[in-house]
Amino acid sequence: MSQTCGFVAIVGRPNVGKSTLMNRILGQKVSITSRRPQTTRHQVMGIKTDGDTQFVFVDTPGMHIMSKDRNKAINHFMNQAATQALRDVDCVVFIIDRTRWSDEDQAVLKRLEHVEAPIVLAVNKVDRLQDKASLLPWLSEVGARREFAAIVPISAKHGTQVETLEAEVAKHLPESVHFFPEDQVTDRSMRFMAAELVREKIMRQLGDELPYQVTVEIEEFRETDRVTHISALILVERQGQKVILIGDNGERIKNIGREARLDIERVLDTKVMLNLWVKVKRGWSDDERALKSLGYDLD
Ligand SMILES: Nc1nc2c(ncn2[C@@H]2O[C@H](COP(=O)(O)OP(=O)(O)OP(=O)(O)O)[C@@H](O)[C@H]2O)c(=O)[nH]1
Ligand SMILES: [Mg+2]
Asked: d(Cα 113, Cα 66) in Å, to the nearest integer?
């Protein structure tokens, strides 16, 4: 039989479960997730090869409406990265959160207007749906908003109906040789993954006091026989944020470092020595040049 292979963009507003879904399909963590919106900042590819079928998923930053506290260069970057992923894809998975429909979902739908690729709607987090009876009428209501190739209620977190969703997507993959070797899971480097895992722990461990204005830069990534030495610089916007991140007696940064190290060890399959540094760099999230130098570059 001939092979099929295609690009599948995963889009939706922040926090609906895009990255959780991609990781679930891949069976491992490639894209970071957290309870907080705007966790994903870059396009991240997740590649799954299943016999003759190869899916190249593209996880995207949540598309969001720009507002007074969200009009920084980094927000433009994230919206653009998400929109760019829609070009030349073979299929789109549009995710929403249960039966909730917000202006931001509407804005995503609007951006999908001119997309010609088939769109599969995933109604996620059904495990948390209080009123199960509301689901069926909602599916027909939302199905009237545009033409969807399929509508699948899922729980990305628990894996419910995720295989059904995959099968719907697989129908739209064109005949093509595979673009990636079958054991490759992502286009991103180990260095990128290490930085992201540190950022994930920061997103997860800091509650609402967390500044969105945190980024992580890997300064050293050196593999020796048994140990990988990694130094990561955490950039924040203000001195107060640095104090929060470090915590009493450095407890918080220690926890972040420990959890990140365990995850990175799992990904690299080596021992890891992880050093974290926190530095204040004012305005990095609103400075195009600084963003580029920090890897937020669409080209
Ligand atoms: N209960 C439940 N929670 C889920 C499900 N899918 C995702 N979540 C949770 O929703 C939160 C957001 O998930 P993410 O995968 O980071 O969402 P995202 O759409 O990638 O978010 P951004 O990257 O910020 O746009 C996390 O706390 C997930 O654990 C689900 O099916 N059920
Ligand atoms: Mg995400």
From this structure: 19
User: pTM of the prediction?
Assistant: 0.96
CA 59 to ligand 1: nearest atom? 20
The span from the CA of 281 to the CA of 214, in Å, is: 10
Cβ(186) – ligand 1 distance below 6 Å: no
64 close to 11: Cβ distance less than 8 angstroms: no
* Ligand 2 center to 225 CA (angstroms): 34
Return all residues near 250 (Cβ < 8 A) that are at least 6 apart: none
Ligand 1 lined by 195 (C-beta under 6 Å): no
Find the mean pLDDT for residues 54-79: 90
Compute the distance between CA of residue 134 and CA of residue 87 in angstroms, rounded to an integer.
Answer: 34
Alpha-carbon 239 to chain mean position: 28
Percentage of the residues of the chain whose pLDDT score is greater than 70: 97
**Cα of 1 to ligand 2 centre, how many Å?**
35
Instruction: Tell me, using a 6 A CB cutoff, whether residue 159 lines ligand 1.
Output: no
CA of 224 to the centre of ligand 2 (A): 32
Nearest CA to ligand 1 atom 11: 35
**Where residue 118 falls among pLDDT bands split at 50, 70, 90?**
very high
Q: Give the span between the Cα atoms of 273 and 265, in whole angstroms.
A: 9
DSSP codes of every residue in 77-88: HHHHHHHHTTTT
Residue 242 in contact with ligand 1 by CB distance below 6 A: no
Contact 88, 37 (CB under 8 A): no
Torsion of CA 23, 28, 30, 31, to 10 degrees: 40
Task: Report how far residue 84's alpha carbon sits from residue 80's, in angstroms, rounded to the nearest whole number.
Answer: 6
* Any ligand 1 atom below 6 A from CB of 39: yes
**Which ligand 1 atom sits closest to the C-alpha of 128?**
1
From CA 16, how far away is CA 122, in angstroms rounded? 10
